[in-house]
Amino acid sequence: MTQIQDSATQESLQKTDTRSKTRKKLFTHVVESKDADETLLRDMWRMRLKLLTLSIPEEEDYAIFKDYCTRPDTFLFTFRGEDNEVGAFFTFSFHPVNKDGHKALMIHSKYYYVDRPYRGHPKITSAAWPMMPKFLWRYGFRRIYFAAFTFPTSFVSLSRTFGRVYTIQGDLAKDWEKDMLEDLASKLNGKNWDTKEKVICNMSVPQGEEKAASRGVTKLREEYETYNPNWQDGKSLPIMMRFDLATMKSVIGTSLRRNKRKKQ
């Protein structure tokens, strides 16, 4: 069955545009998968359709979407505007790992979508932090990693938010970390996992991937393309980010900058 790429974080590349748009109010709602109702799932799915050109029939796509969003150990973060429409959402699924004597918790964000008026909004990037004590209590104290399957725009956005990302192809991650990320990508994507290129095949390319970019964004896109040169063929790249002091400083710094822009 053809699947789709669903971790497409889409950043606004126009600074003045971002400043005006992030003044809009957002209201956060967090739901565990077992408590998600049909209305919420449909609202999230319809918002996502505005940012993605499907390669499969809509109801088939919705069935895949609903199946993932209602799996155990999954949380749904939604953000609604003053009109009560979903303006952004993302999902977290939790995967405890014991790899070569290392205990870790992989937090995978399969779906991550932000509608244009809310791109760069600080509330979105900071929404998960108040939940971290609950997650640690449930899964125990382990090394924490965030994982996502990316196209260029989401790779750029996550790189800028977290400060550094790790890939299977690159040299930054340790061998056991690369194996852990590959195990997760293979487990979640089955036959769509390319064991040779270490990418996920048969994905739908998100809209807006061809937009012009600043010098800093261009550099990150070039880095992405060294790992995944054939992304336009519907291939997405698994990445992960360590949850450590350096990451926290980077995320807090990003949130503060976005808050500053919001007030301007």
From TrEMBL:
Protein name: GNAT family N-acetyltransferase
Organism whose genome encodes this protein: Litoribrevibacter euphylliae
